[in-house]
Amino acid sequence: MTVQTISDWAEIYQLKSAYGWHYDTPDLDALVDLYTDDAVCVFGPYGTWNGKAEIRDGFAANVGASDNRFPSLHTFANPMISIDGDQATGQWYLMDFVLTGAGADPVLRVMGVYHERYQRMATGWRIARMELTFLWNSDVGRIQPGEERRLEWHADAA
Question: What φ, ψ does residue 154 adopt, rounded to 5°?
């Protein structure tokens, strides 16, 4: 590995960490800034969002209110990042916990795998495509490929 590859890997790792922090705090402006202008997000029952305007609208419907910090806790693990010049790909495990209220135990809500493409921009690495494959949901259990439509999503439960 070259020094540049190691540096790029660390920057992409930090980009994914920022995604989790900005989603969970929530900071919608900072979250949307992590994407390229023409990015695509494919989130099964949440839909497919094309471009920053749709990404903003999609996240706005699903992240917590600014006065409700950390209604969810997105945890990412086992990154597989491959870098090729100014483009890269990544895969990450997702464990999404919901923090429902004072005194309530956290609930594991979703497990899945993110498949992502990144683009190096003048401002650093950005997410060009994000696709989430849902593997398990606390409401329906194990999700087989193609069954994502069975899920019913609610902003307060995501």
Answer: -130, 140
